[in-house]
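job 3f2a | input accepted
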Amino acid sequence: MKKGFSLVEVLLAVAVFGLMVTGLAGGLIYGQQSTALAGQRARAVILADEGLEAIRNIRDENFSNLTDGTYGLTTAGNQWNLSGTSDITDIFTRQIVISAVDANRKQLTSTISWQQNPQRSGQIQLVTYLTNWRATVTVPATCSEYAVGQGYSGGTCRQNIQQCTNNSETYLLGGDVFCTGGPNADTCCALAGPTPTPTPTPAPPSTCAEYCISLGIYSQGTCRTGVPQCNANGETHESGGNSLCQQAEGGTCCCLP
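job 3f2a | predicted structure (257 res):
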């Protein structure tokens, strides 16, 4: 007598086959999405680096072009120019923030933002510093010029260190070489001590990227949906930055060396 499959066996086979097909389809879709996200991130890094190189090009034209503020970039006649507060390339929005460190140094922050999918956005930041390499360095020729260069109001050559103290001045060892009046005037004393410059309190980070950079061992950061996503992108999860990631961004701060 021939035996056939029972209804239960048929249903079980169909269920197993359906699970296999679902798993394979899910893996294929996840792989495609991961590849697309990695491609977007790589392009964002290129655009961020391009922004820093563009500002370097503008700096080389004239350091005074680097006015503090937030900018976008345009090109005209094969020359980069600052324009507006951002620029857009496809799905990517770029912002360049220029801030003064001192009279001859600027900090540049190039930020790229984009919508990875309807539920999650992406962001990376690159930071660098530029100097005014054309700035003229004045070499002091007198004790007074040397003292001014050190932040004092002026200086004078005296007989010895005690004379500095008697006149409420500060002895500057490095300025002695400018005092050539003999033993009675071979000591450089600075007039009126320098006014201390208060150390600005750094603003707390407001994004995952800023938090990662503030740790001093990472170059950028982005918000993802979980720790596995950090690992999949070669990043390190830093829980201290999670509070800076909105739920819409994934809630997990991932940092990249």
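job 3f2a | The radius of gyration is 31 Å.
job 3f2a | closed
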